[in-house]
Fold:
Amino acid sequence: DTGVSQDPRHKITKRGQNVTFRCDPISEHNRLYWYRQTLGQGPEFLTYFQNEAQLEKSRLLSNRFSAERPKGSFSTLEIQRTEQGDSAMYLCASRAGGGSNEQFFGPGTRLTVL
Amino acid sequence: SQQGEEDPQALSIQEGENATMNCSYKTSINNLQWYRQNSGRGLVHLILIRSNEREKHSGRLRVTLDTSKKSSSLLITASRAADTASYFCATAIISSGSARQLTFGSGTQLTVLP
Structure:
């Protein structure tokens, strides 16, 4: 257990539905990341928050995806009008500020879009 | 897109043997990190090596970095069945931003047979 939690752990939804995932980072960490991982591949960066500010977004993050970190603590990732290609593991990670480079990953949310 | 490639894609060894995994990457980096992922779980940070370092040890792990060849290797000595997992290298690129998002390779699936 790295101290980063994600909810739910699994989500099955029908195409076209909206889904929302939550990440609770390590409390002292002001940096938060979302990644997506498909089967047999490494994680791919989606977006980054420093405190409540969303500072970077990957071009993988289509306009159907939105992420928030309203109080600089937990974060949510919402996918609207889900497509089968959205099926993946969604991973959240956090790290401390300053010179720290190590990211602590949560267990992930596995999304299956039918 | 993936920054690096791991080699081999899959490795199967007997308990007690050493396992060597290689990683190549494409751009100049700030540091390179190795992560481990058990099936269906989140990633666990193993070791970080900075761009000005050539070798680093942590317990049974030894990492080397050759920035001229843009490659790294991870050696696990005296392997155990519990080392069975996927291993990913991840690079943090030099940039003006603070994100330091990680770019992962495609991973090596290590199986240690008892």
